[in-house]
Amino acid sequence: MKKIIPFAVILLSLVSCAQSTPPKQFSEATKQEKVTDLQGQELSFGDLHKRHRGKITVIEIWASWCGDCVKAMPKVKEMQAAHPDVDYVFISMDKGLDKWKAGIEKHQLTGDQYWVNDEKGMKGSFGKSIDLDWIPRYIVLDAEGNIVTYRAIETDFEQLNATLKTLK
What is the pLDDT of residues 75-95, one digit of tens each? Predict the structure, then answer.
């Protein structure tokens, strides 16, 4: 019995570590998810992803109603100023098109803007496909489109900036 307990602890820790490893690529299910651009055109997340190949990219998942998202906006702008050669993609989880567009204008967001048109918001199919459990959520992609950072939040700007410096 004494030998089984340490073995079980080691096995459990290995399983939990394996589950926390971020993916290197988006799943096919995620690539099939639809987003809408500011012109009202719907495209797949995979097509959005392809548009930024060759560039280091920061993706922010946010919503205009999200207090933590709004609170983080000055840090996002500082990051953009410090790393102007990086592409910035904002994906809104707002419930309505009008709220999304008003949020972009109010916070003067610069970068590519997309909206997930899903009445379930974060709990909808796009959110589930990327394991979205909190916003704002930041994902960093290298120039080849590989995921470098998968689950950063509003308190991780120091780490995000350090990651961006290493990718240049």
Answer: 999 999 999 999 999 999 999
The CA-CA-CA angle for residues 145, 146, 151, to 5°, reads 115
Cα dist from 101 to 14, 65, 82, 108, 150, whole Å: 44, 12, 26, 10, 26
In this prediction, residues 114-132 reach a mean pLDDT of 90
The whole-model pTM stands at: 0.85
Whether 137 contacts 93, CB under 8 Å: no
Compute the chain's Rg from CA coordinates: 18
| Cβ contact 77:162 at 8 Å | no
* CA angle in degrees (0–180, nearest 5) for 27-158-126: 25
Which pLDDT value is given to residue 55? 97
| Gap between the Cα atoms of 16 and 10, Å rounded | 10
Read off the tokens for 93: 């989880």
